Amino acid sequence: MTQTLVKNIDAVPALPESVQAVERVYQNSESTFEDFTKIIEKDPLLSANILKVVNSPLFGLPRKIVSISQAVSLLGKDAVRACALGSVVDSFEIDLSPYNMTSQDFQKACELQLSLALNWAGKIDREITPVLAPAAFLVDIGRVVIAKTLIEDDKADVIEVALLSGEDISQAEITACGAQTTDVTATLFAKWNFDPDTIHIIRYADDPEGANPDEQKAAAYLKAIREAVMPNGDITEDSINQALETIEEFGLDEAKFKETIEKITKED
């Protein structure tokens, strides 16, 4: 990593105390739905952010959710916890102009990836959801730090050149600042004291075969999710086909994937 990138990673603040509190309650096997709900409701801003995400059309809920207790009841603790963790995005100054993206594009991609994690992988391999959901929602937060680095190092055109030439974006990131998005995100998750399993599947999202056997399937899910949803939140025929190659390679459920893609693209 370049010195500028290291400096920018070091400058990222710790998780907000309210988010840390949510995580502590979530990880406590003796906590109840009521405990979980109460800890979120203590922070009105966090509650509002969660309700904004869960009321997105991507969740396809039959009615508007107006309370955290409703959200937990209808979506479960895994989904609401992921949304709570996703509020960390608000602590970032997002300028993704080097990627020709807006903050709205970024948020859309995050929400689509979370929706795929919950409605595809989560319906098949529920035990993976606690690890996969937050990873899918926040896997590209490292891109925000890389964009800041590119701007400060006067290399903002590197990604644009890569896109025009058909070069792999991850390789362009490595060339420009010594790390790709998933490397930076994994480093941030370690800084925030996330569990090692989540950190590992993010680090191996580009290369699931390199992950430990116990983590390989979750990493493959994450790779397919990131391939299906382009960085700007678009889902195209090409991106779907790329994801399908990964799905076939790792023996994931293709039929459920196609069903979920059809559902979320209609709701988007």
Characterize the largest beta sheet: strand count, sense, and whether it forms a barrel: none
Number of helices: 16
**CATH fold name of the largest domain:** Hypothetical protein af1432
- Give the termini distance in whole angstroms: 37 Å
CATH superfamily of the largest domain: Hypothetical protein af1432
Q: Which structural class is indicated by helix and strand composition? A: mainly alpha
Assign a percent range to the helix content: 55-70%
Number of extended strands: 0
CATH class of the largest domain: Mainly Alpha
Q: What is the annotated CATH architecture of the largest domain? A: Orthogonal Bundle
Mean pLDDT, to the nearest integer, reads 91
Low-confidence runs of at least 5 consecutive residues: none
Order of helices and strands: HHHHHHHHHHHHHHHH
Percent of residues in beta strands? under 5%
Q: What is the CA-based Rg, rounded? A: 18 Å
Number of domains: 2
Net shape: globular
